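Table S5 (text form). Sequence records supplied for joint modeling of the two-component complex.
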Amino acid sequence: MNLDQGDLNVAHSGETTERRCPERMEPSRHVTIASGDAQPSDATDSTRRVRLEGLNAFYRNHHAVRDINLSFEPGRVMGIIGPSGCGKSTMVRCINRMHEEIPGARSEGRVLLDDIDLQSSEVDAVSVRRLVGMVFQKPNPFPTMSIFDNVAAGLRFTGTPRRERAERVERAFESAGLWEEVKERLTNPGVSLSGGQQQRLCIARALAVEPDVLLMDEPCSALDPVATLKIEELIGQLKKKVTIALVTHNMQQAARVADTTAFMLGGELIEVDSTEKMFTNPRDERTEQYVTGRYG
Amino acid sequence: MSDSSFPRRHPLLAQTEHLRRRRFVNRVMELSAWTGAVIAVGVLAVVITSVATEGISSLSISFLTTPTNPFGQAGGISNAIVGTGILVALATLMAVPIGILVAIYSSEFAGPRSGFVISYVLDVLNGVPTIITGIFVFGLLVVGHQQSGWAGAVALAIVMVPLVSRSCHEVLTLVPDAVKEAGLALGASRWRTMLTVIIPTALGGLITSALLAVARAAGETAPLLFTSSIFPNLVQTDPSQVLPNIPVTIFQFSESPEPAKHAQAWAAALVLIVFVFVVNIVARLFSAQARRRIAAGRQ
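The corresponding structure-token record, covering 595 residues in total, follows.
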């Protein structure tokens, strides 16, 4: 997924920001940051396994997710593909319990993180969301907050002391590949950034609280190809630090970024395997039809 | 098309009967909508100009700064201005927090059924004639005691609560779900999300709602008739006493046999209408700001 420098320079001219640093996206730099040597010891390379066991999800009477068993392995990006309405977003929203925020929505089965059921009544939804971050389909920076405050917001929620915030915000911006672009204008409103930058701002915001798992729900569907490429590259770096679930309706994206790919259809998990196998030699006929564009 | 000596008209240029009728209907509808708009604006213009022309002659600095003199031309309405200020301020302090809390509950925490019940109740409360609100507060706080600024403020607050909570509810529901979800997904509780994300985004609109309710309360007369209407002609700032106020003063002046008092009633009306006008303009400024913020979150 490495881009060569020439491509990147072309890519840069496409976006609207003026302050640019050409070596910013140099891959080696990100590897260093992403490897986590600046992290507190307990966070170093601590990625966690998420397991879904017999997960069912409903919207009132609509059975949106049907009996899913799936394991998200540390250090690997899980791509989740399938046609619109197949339940892929609903499934990942069960992992951070955002599903239950929708009136009339409920779920059954288990979502295990370190063998603790996130859905159990003893576990508070707020604590779950501090370990499981999320990036949404459309960039959704807080409209009243500055670029800095957007990323610091999660730290304020978790009560991180003020003196630590600046450093952690900067680290989150660097992990999201946004620091060079925003460091001169941290007090500008978050919404003043371009769409692609806003999405990386949202990624930085999610990373600032150092989650173990990052759910990305079609994070590039509102972005142009250049911004999409940047985020895909970013995902490749981030997977060393966080377990990533990437929902996408773009099969090429799954092929480019995911290590493992799961195909969903009608709320069911049809097949899950290494991405290469899924796109070249899937077991299920429906998977083959979908990945070859004859279905959905 | 029997007339073959002319080239056939292109269908885009044909003047059919149907086309003429469509154009006519369109013009009639446009004109009647325009007339309606002109009438609405015209009524306001007539009210303001007649109040202004009748009232301007008695309006002066001393009218605004001297208390009422029950006889003749002398005297002003400073006592009523101060009293209305205190009454409306107290009512606002009571009604706006309650109204916003109700709006927060109904927009964020209530289920669909209780949300419906709350909005229905508020609509009914909003529809209660204000004279009935006045009698209610009279029975509650005045009978056995005496009229007081507190009683008047409570009556005005009852008028304000449904206005504030209904419009705040609308404003809060305008904040995009995406923004709310961002807060929740970041590990903020619902309450924290409300305080740090939703309310700041909607703040301009909330202020607008409060200001429009203030403007409405400042002009309400009926709630004060039973609660704060028998007042002395001097500046009174203690809400445990009866507070003079502009609407009741206008009513009393206009009942007076003296023509000078009638002119003063117009002048007091002018003061009131200018206040309402200014508050409305300020409210619009805040709502424009809120719209910008909400649009920024929606894009």
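Note: The CA atoms of residues 137 and 267 of chain A lie 19 Å apart.
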